Amino acid sequence: MRVVPLFPYDRQLGFDMFVIDLAPGALSESSPHEPGVIEHVIVISGRLELAIDGEWHSLAAGEAMRFQADRPHAYRNAGSQTVRIHDLIHYPQS
């Protein structure tokens, strides 16, 4: 998995954004973030499998999903080509 910051964390706006590439067969599991964190995942190319609380969802290029990231989640590429996504992570204001 390759993760490149697209927009670094901005305290005033409360988010950061990454470009993530997953090679064929790659699986990345994420521990829950802090309460109130929301992720917005947009598939740029390929097909992404995204698990939220153990339930898998399949997203094609051009599709997106927003979810509460304060629960276990995972990203998987079961295809034969690299998957590229944009992942915007929004943190609650304290």
UniProtKB/TrEMBL annotation:
Domain of life the protein comes from: Bacteria
Domain Cupin type-2 residue range list: 19-87
Coiled-coil residue windows: none
UniProt xrefs under InterPro entries: Cupin_2 (IPR013096), RmlC-like_jellyroll (IPR014710), RmlC_Cupin_sf (IPR011051)
Name this polypeptide is given: Cupin domain-containing protein
